């Protein structure tokens, strides 16, 4: 799989993840500097080859509005580590409203968790307390950096020195 390139703002906050082709264009136009490369990898074009950038930094500050992480099934499962937040099971995962919708529970990061089918059925239309269930972790809204660290640990260790996982932009 093609490795992606982390783009940092002038102040070194992460702003985007782009293809290597896009990164090369930014470098050739001198709109960015290369801070780190994937060693042993090269980008080849017909006429020449380039070091494969891993992290680049923009040469001018870009004002970018907050980019949250999209609330969807996959991202929710990722935040919760693919585990039921009541019993830790990794099987038959579903999405549970901690405070049920019928009791005014919202559909947002703070009220949605990963739950296995069994716990979800047991809980039914009750709150965790009423159902005798305890959450393993307080639900939270993940930052872009949080998911970037997750990706970097699996695919792009070269990014890690440039990511401060606790910074919420
Ligand atoms: Zn469960």
Describe the structure.
The structure is a single chain. The C terminus is likely disordered. The protein is α+β, with helices and mostly antiparallel strands. Strands 2-1-4-3 form a 4-stranded mixed beta sheet, with helices on one face. The protein has 2 domains: about 80 residues, no CATH class; about 60 residues, DNA Binding (I), subunit A, CATH 1.10.30.50. Strand 3 and strand 4 form a beta hairpin. The radius of gyration is 20 Å and the shape is elongated. The two termini are about 30 Å apart. It has 5 helices and 6 strands. Helix content is about 25%, strand content about 25%. Zinc ion binds next to strand 6 and helix 3.
List the ions, cofactors and other small molecules found in this model: zinc ion
Q: How much of the residues is beta strand, in percent? A: 15-25%
Helix proportion range: 10-25%
Let me know the number of strands.
6
Give the CA-CA distance, first to last residue: 29 Å
Largest sheet: 4 strands, mixed
- Number of helices, counting only DSSP H or I runs of 4 residues or more: 5
Low-confidence stretches: 165-169
Protein name: HNH endonuclease
Organism: Algoriphagus halophytocola
GO molecular function, one term: endonuclease activity
Domain HNH nuclease: 71-121
């Amino acid at each position: 799989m093609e490795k992606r390139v982390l783009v940092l703002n002038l102040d070194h906050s992460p702003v985007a993840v782009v293809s290597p082709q896009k990164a090369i264009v930014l470098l050739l136009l001198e709109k960015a500097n290369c801070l780190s490369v994937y060693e042993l990898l090269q980008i080849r074009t017909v006429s020449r080859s380039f070091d494969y950038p891993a992290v680049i930094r923009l040469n001018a500050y870009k004002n970018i509005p907050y980019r949250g992480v999209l609330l969807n099934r996959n991202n929710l499962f990722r935040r919760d580590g693919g585990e039921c937040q009541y019993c830790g099971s990794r099987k038959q995962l579903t999405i549970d409203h901690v405070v049920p919708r019928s009791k005014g529970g919202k559909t947002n990061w703070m009220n949605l968790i990963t739950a296995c089918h069994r716990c979800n059925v047991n809980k039914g239309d009750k709150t965790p307390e009423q159902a005798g269930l305890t959450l393993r972790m307080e639900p939270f809204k993940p930052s872009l950096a949080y998911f970037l660290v997750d990706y970097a640990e699996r695919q792009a260790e070269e990014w890690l020195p440039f990511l401060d996982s606790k910074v919420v932009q």
